[in-house]
């Protein structure tokens, strides 16, 4: 890495040895190394991260920022861009452990209620066989389950779960459930996208832990922190897809709508226009291509989600390039 100074090295080294770091910690490390505050020297901070990523790209690594969806905090980490769990977890975890991890992650992200977590017991009881069937569809069914996976005991699962939480691949949520860890948020970006995990309608990142629109038939989900950012006042919160009040359940909303309809009775034309507009908006939000949404998401994230902290924005330009190139393959 001839273009990097010892300061760049120190940043990368810290992330590699300590694992993902909160934005606050990463910023203070940057400050300690450069005597410059990343908040007031955004350009310097950006350039530093871009320089690092330029070099890391040669070995398919990337320094990136992500949000922990359970608390909305930004974290930094270095990830391996090779989409292969074996390469990422293989040095520490065995094949059955990795299979177990993948099954738990799938169960978490497939939660239709957007809670982004499953109970401890559900985690311990995930079916590893499904994972194998996905991985080797062409090579036969459950009869070919390797003994190592077939004999993976409950106590081994418990121990693995503990280790995965300790290492930040999974987390133990405040209500005692199992959710995705920061490392998974950093690492699984493209995987989440490939697996069609519903995205947040505001930032377009996967909405693993998100609030759902209560309107029947509306599939919009939004991260709590994105919602707060976009609509600081609770009363103003509306679904960005269908326009209905956010957080009001159907029964309540019917009342609200009735009141509104009364007001609009005089101009039925205006009302039907509004409805048509809302419907077309909802439809277009469904139609929007993932790539298009991705781009707008990045801008949104820089400008609205992260105004004071240059954090995520610094990594974004590089990240966009990387993703695009990956997709074109
Ligand atoms: Zn969001
Ligand atoms: Zn909606």
UniProtKB/TrEMBL annotation:
Xref: Pfam families: SMC_Nse1, zf-RING-like
Chief location of this protein within or outside the cell: nucleus
Keyword list, A-Z: DNA damage, DNA recombination, DNA repair, Metal-binding, Nucleus, Transferase, Ubl conjugation pathway, Zinc, Zinc-finger
The keyword Transferase belongs to this UniProt entry's keyword annotation: yes
One GO process term, biological-process aspect: double-strand break repair via homologous recombination
Range of residues in the leader sequence: none
Region (Disordered): 256-329
Enzyme class, broadest EC rank: transferase
Listed Acidic residues bias regions: 256-265
Skewed-composition ranges (Low complexity): 269-287
GO function term, MF aspect, one: ubiquitin protein ligase activity
Biased composition (Polar residues): 302-316
Matches recorded under InterPro entries: Nse1, Nse1_RING_C4HC3-type, WH-like_DNA-bd_sf, Znf_RING/FYVE/PHD
Domain (Non-structural maintenance of chromosomes element 1 RING C4HC3-type): residue spans on this chain: 200-242
Highest taxon of source: Eukaryota
UniProt subcellular location: Nucleus
GO cellular component, one term: nucleus
Family that this chain belongs to: Belongs to the NSE1 family.
The protein's assembly and partners: Component of the Smc5-Smc6 complex.
Protein name stated in the entry: Non-structural maintenance of chromosomes element 1 homolog
